[in-house]
Amino acid sequence: MTDPARATSPGPEAPTDTASAGYTERLARLAGASWKQRLDVQRPYRWNVRRLNLGRVLDLGCGLGRNLAHLDGNGVGIDHNPTSVATAREHGHVAFTPEEFRNSPHARPGAFDSLLMAHVVEHVPHETAVALLREHLPFVRPGGKVVLICPQERGWASDATHVRFVDFTGLAELCGEAGLPVERAYSFPFPRRAGQVFAYNEFVVVARLPDRPR
C-alpha cells in the first residue's frame, strides 16, 4: 500500500530506531505528560483491551508495559528494546527481550490465552510481521485470540520509526498468511474517518487460532 502523506512532522530530533534508549525516553515522555495523567487519556483504551477478555496475554512489542498495566499484569511482555524491557520491569511487569523470553519458563506451547501485537506491525516490513506472528503463535493455546492494533493516518504520520501504513486490509492479509480467521475489525475509539485528524485512532483486528483437530 502507498503510504499516506505525513500529516505531522515528528521533529528533527525524533528517534528513528525503536531499539534505542532514545525511543524508550520518547515513549516515557509522551506517556508521562501531566495533562494526560490529569485527564486519564488511557481510560478508553484500557476499557477496550479489557473488554476483549484476553486471559493470559503474550504482549509482543510491549514497550513500557502500558497494555500489561491495562490488563493488571495478567501476561508477559516481549520487546526488542532492552531499555523498554527494563522500564516495564521497573513498573512491576514480567517482560523480556526476545532471547530472554525463549530461555524463560514462559516459552511453552499453549502457555497463553492470547497474543497481542499493538503498534508493532507498522514498524516492520510485511515479511517481518508475518515471521514474528508465526514464531509466537505456538505459545498461544488452540482457539486463543490474536489482537492486532495499528495507528490510523494521523498517528502513523506522527512517528519517524513507522515504516509502512497498515489498514484493515493489510492486517487481514497478515492474519490470512498466518492462518488466522478474522472475527472482528473495528475503528477505535472513534469512527474510521476520525483517523485523518485524531492521532490516537486505531485499527483493531481480532482473529482466532483454529482449535485442535479432533
UniProtKB/TrEMBL annotation:
Swiss-Prot/TrEMBL GO biological process terms: methylation
Q: Which UniProt keywords apply?
A: Methyltransferase, S-adenosyl-L-methionine, Transferase
Q: Which domain of life is it from?
A: Bacteria
Region listing for Disordered, in residue ranges: 1-22
**In this protein, which residues make up the domain named Methyltransferase?**
57-144
InterPro entries found in the cross-reference section: Methyltransf_25, SAM-dependent_MTases_sf
The family database entries (Gene3D superfamilies) matched by this protein are listed as:
Vaccinia Virus protein VP39
- Pfam families tied to this protein: Methyltransf_25
**Protein name (Swiss-Prot/TrEMBL):** Methyltransferase domain-containing protein
Question: Which species is this record about?
Answer: Geodermatophilus ruber
